[in-house]
Amino acid sequence: MRNVCLYFAADASALFCFRLDHNRIKANFYPPDRSTPNTFGLFGNSLPAAGARVLWAAVKWFLIFLLLSVLMALGARGQDMVVYDDALESGWVSYGWAALNFSNASPVHAGKNSVSVADHGTKSGALYLHHEAFAPSLYESLSFWIYPIVGRTNEVAVRAMLNGKAQPPVRLSFTAAQVNHWQLERIPLSSLGVAGNESFDGFWIQNITGGPLTYYVDDVALLAPPPPDLVTVTIDAQSVIRTVDSRTYGMNLAIWDPHLSGTTTTNLLTAMQTGALRFPGGSASDDYDWQTDRSASRGSFRWPNNASTFARITEEHGAQAFVTVNYGSGTPEEAAAWVAYYNASASGTAVIGVDSKGRDWKTTGYWAAMRGAAPLPTDDGYNFLRASHPAPYGFRYWEVGNECYGNWENDLHGANGSGLPGTAHDPYTYAQAFPAFYKKMLSVDPTVRIGAVGMPGEDKYGNKTHGVPNPNESNSLHAGWTPVVLATLKSLGVTPHFLIDHYYAQNAHNESDAVLLQAGGRLRSDAANLRKMIADYVGTISGSSIELVVTELNSVSENPGKQTTSLVNGLFMADALGNLAGTEFNACTWWAFRNGVNPGGNNSASLYGWRTYGDYGVAASGRYAGAPANTAYPSFYAAKLLTHWGRSGAAIVSATSGYALLSSYASKLPDGSLALLVINKHPAVDLRTQFTLDHFTPGVAPAEIYTYGKQNDLGGTDLSTATVVISGSTFDYTFPSYSMTVLVLKSPSQSSR
Asked: Are residues 655 and 634 in the same domain?
């Protein structure tokens, strides 16, 4: 960080001090007496307080603009990833084996700390820094300063890692003249054998002297090449990838949202043109008794929202519904009764039956009649279900459980007295139970679609039992969650209607803005991986009817920090949905609409953003003083921006960008317009971009521009709008740093109207 002071007035007595850190500029004004801002001297003149405030406001914004300009001019390397600068940053953690001190006070290259590496006994000790695997395509070299205290040949070796496997070393030697001085080392990632490899997950600096050794390391970073002067983007309007499904733009609604029934909910959901809504809310689903609106594990506690509230909101918005039934502590009969409540006719006489817990779930008509009834004058405890809605809602999409592979999920299978057989968090148990849910729910409404929990990766999660052979890979055995579920269901003669993926791009305290802004592309590989497993374990033909959906998406898996409420998360949302729209994922419900503030997450200065708390929601729940209810976060504006891009019925067409920090996605809208979604992921550099349009020539009507970026976020303003005249199939446009923009180019036929 830096401090910059600017002096105004003839005697330099008025002082503005600016503190510049990774993300923000903080300004303080000290008038001539250094004590009160009521008056200040400017070029020898004295102004009254009101005039001082007006002038200070003008000067303040001019100076902020000036400093932002300076930062952008200095920011060509702003996308460098800091690994260590007084502390580990950007999600890097220590896996080293030596006496390591990350707060060493001397010697220090810059700042106040360095890392001391003392190998007294092993004679091969190392500073080993690890990160969750990511593709280092943005970076060209590893940079660090090292302070040797002896000079010799082959003193240390630098080795990069691919999935934990060390690559060939780069050996460093030091002369006697270099001893007790800081030396800068920059090693190309190509020399380390990891350039562009998405399995890159760390590096070590290791003693290879064969004897004890102590050295110091400071200011470690991955260095990015400077951005190009001109980014090229090519659009082929005839190369159609797919048609957008309205369910692509969905939201999770939560049973704990205190404002869900309010009119602001309607306004916010409408502004985002939300096409799908999911209920009751993540892990709570596997502990939720919909018929009492209580948690199975919490007895008397009743949630603020319920099955009827969700149904009303979903119907009002004309959205598709995704309902997650309770697998962890519920039964197939409980799930079937919920289907009946939403979709059955009051004249229905089909018996749902008594479940394994001894609970009688009556008939389909019983629950439909409850839905159609008006609330009783004296509430018998079930008025929340009486919705005065005789007609069925017809909700179609139903999930059996939520993240059932995870030990964070409530799962009573195998627990004494639960009435649920098997083993908790076990794919074989899940697959054995799924058919009962499937058949019971379909018996109530044969038109519903029932999804099974899945996840990418043949060997991820699972209990390492009931391994199944992959017939397309020499019958190699895999005991991961998805292969076991799919193969077991096939053996039982049941094919789920859809397979569910949840994608959280990072784990808590490993957040990195640079990594997150490249993580949206993994949705493409996730879709391909899930489809391959369906083909392998169900069959290409038999599995072709299984659609893919993402019912939770956000940047971090738990304990959300400041990144979730920052502009970066908004950029991630736009980029992730741009990627997803080009895959075979047919639906996506963002986690979440409102969730709740978490002040205790990762609020590192290495992350961009001025809010000092996390929140999964696109709008605040109002339970935190710093975030009034319904405060819209950048992710809300990302969703709103996308209403101008690839909505339902639009055709996604080919778009290719020549620079990794500028993503471009294109769609042909039903009215003939060409909509371009462009995301500048560089934190400090505006990117001049040249577009080449194939098979589309803009008409004479001005193009519409919708933008959200730093100024909108800092100023608390809505999307910025403008128009620009574009002629011909080649044109230039400059996109501000950290911004997302939609350009809607009108067709010639629109221009003639």
From this structure: no
Q: Please give the angle made by the CA atoms of 235, 238 and 244, to the nearest 5 degrees.
A: 85
**Quick one: 416 and 468 in the same domain?**
yes
Q: Please list the residues that pair with 542 across neighbouring strands.
A: none
95-107: average pLDDT: 97
Give how many domains the chain has, as a whole number: 4
Residues 526 and 639 in one domain: yes
CB under 8 Å, gap of 24 or more: what pairs does 410-417 form? 410/283, 410/286, 410/287, 410/296, 410/297, 410/328, 410/329, 411/286, 411/327, 411/328, 411/329, 412/328, 412/329, 413/328
Work out the end-to-end distance of the chain between its first and last CA atoms, rounded to an integer number of angstroms.
56
What pTM did the predictor assign?
Answer: 0.88
Does residue 527 surpass a pLDDT of 80? yes
Task: Give the tens place of pLDDT for each residue, 24-60.
Answer: 333 433 333 323 333 333 333 333 444 444 444 554 4
Q: Are residues 323 and 468 part of one domain?
A: yes
- Segment 287-316 mean pLDDT: 93
Q: Could you tell me if 453 and 592 lie in one domain? A: yes
User: ω before 592 within 30° of 0 (cis)?
Assistant: yes
Q: What are phi and psi of 563, to 5 degrees?
A: -60, -35
Q: Which domain holds residue 167?
A: 81-223
Which residues are within 8 A (CB) of 146 and not within 5 positions of it... i.e. 6 or more apart? 156, 172, 182, 183, 185, 205, 215, 216, 217
Position with higher pLDDT, 121 vs 272: 272
* Whether 354 and 437 share a structural domain: yes
Of the residues 644, 675, 691, which one is the last residue of a structural domain? 644
| 647/275 Cα distance (integer angstroms) | 9
Whether 580 has a pLDDT exceeding 70, the answer reads: yes
Q: Where are the alpha helices (DSSP H) in 560-609?
A: 567-580
Task: Tell me, letter by letter, the H, E, C secondary structure of 470-495.
Answer: ECCCCCEEECCHHHHHHHHHHHCCCC
Q: CB count, 10 Å around CB of 648?
A: 14
Q: Give strand pairing partners of 422.
A: none
- Are both 46 and 91 inside the same structural domain? no
Clarify whether residues 414 and 297 are in a common domain. yes
Tokens of 78: 């702003």
Amino acid identity of 407? N
